[in-house]
Amino acid sequence: MSKTSDFEADLLSLQQFRDWLASLVEAQQPQEEWSLSLEQLKQRWEPRMQERASGASRMFF
């Protein structure tokens, strides 16, 4: 009997970890971006990354 409850506890723990990990991923990348192609992602993020890179170089140099 104890094996069953240990298994259920492990399963619950894994499900909670999965949900936590999914929430981290969701927070980092908007849901609609999951279906974008590489080219669409580049078009969306490249200008922002260039802005950030040029801003960082001005800030430190």
Structural summary, described in words:
It is a single chain. The chain is mainly α and 61 residues long. The chain is built from two helices and no strands. The longest helix has 27 residues, at 2-28. The N and C termini lie far apart (66 Å).
Task: Sketch the major β-sheet.
Answer: none
- Helical amount: over 70%
Topology pattern, helix = H, strand = E: HH
Distance between the termini: 66 Å
Helix-strand category: mainly alpha
Would you identify the regions where 5 or more consecutive residues have pLDDT less than 50? Answer: none
The number of E-state strands comes to: 0
Computed CA radius of gyration, to the nearest angstrom: 21 Å
The averaged pLDDT comes out at: 81
Which SSEs are present, and which pair or pack?
Elements: H1 2-28, H2 38-60
Q: How would you sum up this structure in a few lines?
A:
With 61 residues, the chain is mainly α.
Key structural traits:
mainly alpha
